[in-house]
Amino acid sequence: MKADTGRSRVSSRVRRTRVAILLAVLFAANASALANAISVTSPDHPQTFTYGEMIWHELCQRKSGELVARITFSNLPYVGDDTPRTDEPFDFHFPGIQVDSARGVFFARSGHGELIPVARIRQFPLYGWIDLSPGAKIYLLKDRGRVTATLTATDFPRGGIRWIQMDNNFSLQNLLVALFREFHEGADN
Known about the structure:
It contains two helices and eleven strands. It has about 190 residues and is an alpha+beta fold. It folds into two domains: about 1-35, no CATH class; about 35-189, no CATH class. It has a four-stranded mixed β-sheet, with no helix packed on it. The chain has a four-stranded antiparallel β-sheet with strand order 5-6-7-8, with no helix packed on it. Strand 9 (about 135-145) and strand 10 (about 145-155) form a beta hairpin. The longest helix has 28 residues, at about 5-35. The chain is flat, with a radius of gyration of 20 Å.
């Protein structure tokens, strides 16, 4: 019998990792090819706490009809006796998003000119609110405290978390975590 040097285990892990990444890329490419998708990045890029976290989020409509994401960040993770809690609210607007007031839907046009719903207006007798449509998500990308908000939507429902905060922009680790979180939550549904 041959002694196991550990090389075969490492090389098989590398092979499995390559196959997993290849399958993830192919799945993502096929999903976007089969469905209409949009991505709108807010021109607003405020500076907040580098190691802070999002503690509140909501969608609202300005008087002009524009869709706005209002997000509050906090230094809550590192509050202490010498550092008081501070919360910072910011508004991110998304150009090109239109509202159909009669249907209570915000939408964007895909590259093919089709309307893709991104948010819905919910009305109750005493109050109302706006929530993301089943195919929409908002990604908050933080790079040393500078925040970029990107609204993505497809014409088919997507499971998982709707408001996703990631640090250091599009690092491979953050992309894989987001991708495999969707697979894991999709399997639970």
